[in-house]
Design a protein that fits this description.
The protein is of the alpha+beta class. It is about 40% helix and about 15% strand. It has a three-stranded mixed beta sheet with strand order 1-2-5, covered by helices on one side. A two-stranded antiparallel ribbon has the order 3-4. The longest helix has 19 residues. The radius of gyration is 26 Å and the shape is elongated.
Length: about 180
């Protein structure tokens, strides 16, 4: 921390010394003033600097290992600006802003008089599920391997944690999102 000779620092030093305090007390007062300025700047994430991690913690943002300060700040501002929506067009635009090409299918149960022969039979609770079809992304696959995997793990798992976490955070509370990954 640099204690430069600013007007504020000089005012604090003179004020503390005039009250009969030592130079160490004046230095402590300057450090306290600088720290208070730092905390005051953290009221908004734009000026948070080293306190950006507190914003990420409060907003429950999962940190990506290689992200720099600008990317982290952008994620915080994005999370603050997004309030969630209930419509499929909202989520399609959200995915587009994140760099994904998606479609969302609202699944519906088979109903006599409405559904046709040949349609799949689905449970009646499927009307609360969305199938999010993600195309054109490279999805990392994790295959169960002896010596690397543990008992109880799936034989194959895959997914894109970025879009899945954003959707699960902002989706309507009654909705279940099922993600389907397609090469093209």
């Amino acid at each position: 921390m640099v204690l430069g000779p600013t007007i504020k620092n000089i005012d604090i030093t003179v004020g503390v010394l005039l009250n009969g305090a030592s130079l160490a007390d004046a230095t402590d007062a300057i450090i306290a003033a600088l720290l208070s300025d730092r905390v005051l700047g953290a009221i908004t994430p734009i000026y948070a600097q080293s306190l950006l991690t507190d914003w990420e913690r409060v907003l429950d943002i999962t940190l990506i290992a290689d992200s720099n300060y600008q990317q982290r700040l952008e994620n915080v501002l994005f999370k603050l600006a997004e309030t969630g929506g209930l419509s499929i067009p909202y989520f399609t635009r959200l995915a587009d802003r994140l760099g994904y090409t998606i479609t969302i299918d609202e699944l519906r149960p088979f109903r006599s008089g409405i559904s046709r022969c040949g349609e799949s039979l689905m449970h009646h609770d499927v009307m609360w599920a969305w199938r999010v079809n993600i195309t054109g992304t490279q999805v990392r696959k994790y295959v169960f391997r002896t010596g690397l995997s543990a008992v109880g793990e799936r034989l194959l798992s895959f997914g894109d944690t970025v879009i899945e976490s954003v959707f699960n955070d902002l989706k309507p509370a009654h909705t279940f999102c099922y993600f389907s990954y397609q090469d093209r």
